Amino acid sequence: MNTRRIAAIFLIVASIAAILLPFASATLLTIGLGGIVFVAGLNQLLRIGDIPNNQGKLFKGLSGLLYIGGAVFILIDPIDSEISLTLFAGVLLLVEGLMELATGASSNASARGLVVVDGIVTAVLGLLLVIEWPSDSLWALGTIFGVSLFLSALNLLKPTDAPPAAS
């Protein structure tokens, strides 16, 4: 069994778990994000010495402290953070969908129809998240993450292009 299939199997199992336990998966995602933001803040602070001027050092230090402060808030109260992230995801999807619609409308490419459909679906999903916020916060992020993992698994299972023939 090749590594693509093994990875796809792991992704399918993870996607099923995320879809069946959306609150748990969304909370774990939120905590993971908090950890990443904390490390990013530490990285900002550790790089202060690389900045040649004091104004740059001040901004880098403030940036690092802001990252760490945000991370602490996320890690202390991941449920409230999850609610905020759901609203952010809804707005992000809505804007992305509208941009896809504009791109599809102004394009002459052969896949123009797919771009428009993608834009409509993405904008509608974003709008639903925003309209139903905050009540959808307990399940939406985990479910969306699970579906995304499943689609990634399907992508790994599709046949790859054959390597070019040696001449």
Low-confidence stretches: none
Percent of residues in beta strands: under 5%
**Oligomer description:** single chain
Determine the number of helices (DSSP H or I, runs of at least 4 residues): 6
Number of separate domains: 1
Mean pLDDT, to the nearest integer, reads 88
Helix content: over 70%
Largest sheet, in brief, is: none
| Measured distance between first and last alpha carbons | 29 Å
**What's the overall geometry?**
globular
Note the main attributes of this structure.
single chain; 167 residues; mainly alpha; 6 helices; 80% helix; globular
Structure description:
The chain has six helices and no strands. By secondary structure, it is mainly alpha-helical. It has one domain (3-157). α2 packs antiparallel against α3, α2 (22-46) crosses α6 and α3 packs across α4 (78-106). The relative contact order is 0.18. The mean pLDDT is 88.
Give a nutshell description of this structure.
With 167 residues, the chain is mostly helical. The protein has helices spanning 3-20, 22-46, 54-76, 78-106, 112-132, 140-157. The radius of gyration is 21 Å and the shape is globular.
Which helices and strands appear, and what pairs or packs with what?
Elements: H1 3-20, H2 22-46, H3 54-76, H4 78-106, H5 112-132, H6 140-157
Helix pairs in contact: 1-2, 1-6, 2-3, 2-4, 2-6, 3-4, 4-5
